[in-house]
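Incident log entry.

Two folding requests arrived from the same account within the same minute. Monitoring flagged them as a possible duplicate submission, but the sequences differ. Recording both here for audit purposes.

Request one:
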Amino acid sequence: MGCEGEVWRVHSAGEPVGEILIDDADFPWLSGRFTAGSGFAAVRDLFARELALAQRDDEGHWEEWERVYAEIGRRVSLSSPDGPVAEFLLHIQGDRAWFRWSDEPFDDDAN
């Protein structure tokens, strides 16, 4: 896919949350080694909560996941080597991150 070796950057309020060195591309997902930046501590718990909810399988957990992920979307941005992306779904766990992204905003009204 040509993405391996690229560095993607995660920011929050202009502060670096971390960098992702891409080492695997399995369309539509990219994944790689995550190196935390100075802003990661402020969002670490959000990402931990998001992943825990995504892995659950009980009634109502997806609604809660959507609320948590909406907060991540409000607080965090993702940039490719070419610049910011419009939309993304990002998971961070330890020194690994995996995500999918779009240059265009997701259309919630597409139904």
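Request two (distinct sequence, not a duplicate):
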Amino acid sequence: MATADDVRRIALSLPEATEKLAWGMPTFRVGGKIFASLGDDDASMGVGCPKEDRAELIAAEPGKFFLREGHDDNFAWLRVRLAALDGEEELSAILADSWRQVAPRKIQDAHPAPGG
């Protein structure tokens, strides 16, 4: 089972990632943009996800993926229940994918396959 400590360790291992407290929660950023955040209960995390992909992911694995109604509706963001992850490899893949979605091109070019 993944923990908040695992999220922090893996997120900060990605190229040029930093941690910053925002809205009372730890957020993880690259190039000043948030690519992940821990939930206020440390049992979930938020990650970047294209809006057009969210419904399919939630329908396929509703015990793993969800939206915080009224909060995530207008953002390319998805919530993940840490206890539902299949291990550290899946956690790493999700965080790396979210990192790639927001990392500036210059950083991505310098680090073409983080987490992979």
